[in-house]
Write a structure and sequence with these properties.
Blueprint lengths: L7 H22 L1 E6 L3 E3 L3 E9 L15 E15 L2 E14 L3 E5 L3 E2 L8 E2 L3 E6 L12 E7 L3 E3 L3 E10 L3 E7 L6 E2 L7 E9 L2 E14 L3 E5 L3 E7 L7 H4 L5 E7 L3 E6 L8 E5 L2 E7 L3 E3 L4 E9 L17 E15 L2 E14 L3 E5 L2 E7 L4 E7 L2 E6 L22 H5 L16 H36 L8 H6 L5 H20 L8 H6 L3 H19 L8 H11 L4
Helix pairs in contact: 6-8, 6-9, 8-9
Length: 572
């Protein structure tokens, strides 16, 4: 046997090298990111800034140069550790409050983090902050309390999502504030995406001023020149009482009511042009993507296939068309996961559609392109979004032992010929009352009796269409179809059918109040009806709006309710 001798110095050097590699591993995996609550400020306004460290353990606070136009104050640190599938991930966040001191555009970053161990500092990204002058305020009687209200656009398309901005600015101490008289007619609140609020203070020569902002998303359901009365803000202002004192005076404060009215709101809304047959019902500027978790697989394994649709329109109720048959694979449909939020004053929605692919043969499996037709408000036309597909390289599945267990009794108690008997075809059982009619004799008569109501309804519908067609042929000049005629000639395509139902009901409402459908103001028209008819028509219009623009499922009795509402309006 030959003994292997290793010098002690070599062992020391190896140990040092391994230790350095172990220490360096977290540094190589660490990532530092700067995140700002908002990138646009006024002079005197403050916002939050986070320096986030993922996958590392900093030994000190971040090092970052702060421009002269800004000041930064450290406000706290958070950290957490998670273990997923045996892999540990560390998360550390340093929180700062950034205050704007001077107008201009400033760059923050990079922030540098020291992870120790003699490793170089890890640097973050950079962010830009724009600071503007404090907005001018009126010098009238209510200069201590002012309000703002406006939509994020002045023109829109029917079905588009707009956001309403409301804010108040005050130098007085408030115990409560409430908006009322907000616009609701001609608008529909999307199911996903709650209003977003923001609050900040500005310090100037007159003292501190509090601003509270809110952005509320709305789906525009009607077209035309829409107008709303100005909303108002009601507040409870704390009144300084020099005589208040003692223990009870510190708990109870006297307030007085103050109301400030905003400005009238308006939108010029254009109706959508006639849609193509494959229109998805989505109105907005969207982006379509799709991906698979791997381009390689084995026969019988599963591959995740995900499609993403994101944009500034409502995606509630959106469903991708069922996947076509893919040669060499089975497709299992998954669920759709919609989400939405108001970010930087704009509505942003995303839907994630999951599918699972299971290859069934060796070779190349081609995943087709995804295709969705939407209406783009910026282009003013229908747009076809396409996400490229992919090719999956499928190898032979791995062989494995199969453990087959039986739940039958012990084989010693079973007949040795039982398996052979089970493979035989059993004779038909013929016992029973002899007077029962054979199925083949009674089936035609049963089918005929069951089909009589359908045949009668079909004949009635054919008769109605024939009369309508005869009336058109015998008319001396072309005329617009009546509401009932429109209901008798509904298209089969779902989107076009909903549009036709809405057109028929709005035409019946317009005829009832004596205006053209282009000049119809729904709220004004409903106000002219008796309470029962107005409630019926308003309920059906709301159901149509939610189905067409908010992605809600169509009620099973929607067509019947539309016909009943048209009849209640007395339309011809």
């Amino acid at each position: 046997m030959v003994a292997l001798r290793v010098p002690l110095a070599a062992l020391v050097r190896l140990a040092v090298l391994l230790g350095a590699l172990c220490v360096a591993t977290p540094a190589l995996a660490a990532k530092v990111v700067i995140e700002l609550d908002t990138d646009s400020l006024f002079v005197g306004q403050s916002t939050g800034l986070d320096v986030v460290v993922r996958g590392g353990d900093p030994i000190s606070e971040p090092q970052m140069q702060v421009p002269a136009g800004l000041t930064a104050e450290f406000s706290g640190q958070q950290q957490s550790t998670t273990i997923v599938n045996g892999s540990m991930s560390r998360y550390v966040k340093f929180r700062y409050e950034i205050t704007a001191r001077q107008e201009g555009t400033y760059t923050l970053g990079p922030a540098k983090i020291d992870l120790g161990g003699g490793q170089p500092l890890v640097e973050s990204n950079v962010v830009t902050v724009t600071i503007g002058a404090a907005p001018p305020r009126s010098s009238g009687a209510n200069k201590a309390l002012q309000v703002e209200d406006r939509f994020n656009t002045t023109t829109a398309w029917q079905g588009q999502v707009v956001t309403l901005y409301t804010a108040f600015h005050t130098r007085r101490s408030l115990q409560g504030a409430r908006w009322y008289g907000m616009p609701e007619s001609h608008l529909l609140a999307p199911r996903d995406g709650n209003p977003t609020q923001n609050q900040y203070k500005i310090q100037d020569a007159d003292g501190p001023q509090l601003t509270q902002e809110e952005w509320t998303p709305w789906i525009v359901t009607d077209s035309g020149s829409l107008r709303w009365d100005p909303p108002s803000l009601e507040v409870a202002v704390v009144v300084e009482d020099p005589n208040a004192g003692g223990l009870l005076g510190s708990f109870f404060q006297r307030t007085e009511r103050d109301v400030v009215t905003g400005t009238p709101l308006s939108l010029d809304v254009r109706p959508l042009p006639p849609p193509p047959a494959d229109f998805s019902g989505l109105v907005g500027d969207f982006e379509l993507k799709q991906a698979i978790d791997s381009n390689r697989a084995r026969v019988g394994s599963s591959v995740d296939w995900v499609t993403f649709l994101s944009g500034d329109g409502s995606v509630e109720g959106f469903k991708l068309p069922p996947a076509a048959d893919i040669e060499g694979a089975r497709v299992y449909e998954g669920g759709a996961s919609p989400s939405a939020q108001v970010k930087n004053g704009n509505y942003v929605a995303t839907v994630r559609v999951a599918r699972t692919l299971v290859p069934t043969r060796v070779g190349s499996v081609v995943i087709p392109d995804a295709r969705v037709v939407v209406f783009s408000p910026t282009k003013g036309e229908y747009v076809t979004l396409t996400a490229p597909g992919a090719t999956l390289d499928v190898k032979k599945g791995e062989a494995g032992a199969v453990n087959v267990q039986s739940f039958a009794p012990d084989g010693s108690a079973a007949s040795p010929d039982a398996s052979a008997e089970d493979d035989k075809v059993r004779p038909m059982w013929t016992s029973g009352p002899a007077w029962r009619l054979p199925l083949e004799r009674g089936l035609p008569a049963a089918i005929g009796v069951a089909a009589l109501p359908a045949l009668a309804l079909g004949a009635l519908a054919i008769g109605r269409r024939a009369r309508a067609r005869l009336a058109e042929l015998t008319a001396s000049e072309p005329r617009e179809a009546t509401p009932r005629e429109r209901l008798d000639a509904l298209p089969s395509e779902p989107v076009a059918r909903l549009t036709a139902l809405d057109d028929a009901l709005r035409l019946a409402l317009a005829q009832r109040v004596g205006v053209t459908i282009d000049a119809l103001d729904r709220d004004a028209a409903l106000a002219q009806l008796d309470d029962a008819t107005a409630a019926t028509v308003r309920d059906v219009l709301s159901a149509l709006d939610r189905t067409r623009f908010a992605g809600a499922p169509a009620p099973s009795d929607l067509e019947a309710r539309v016909r009943a509402a048209v009849a209640a309006l007395g339309a011809a």
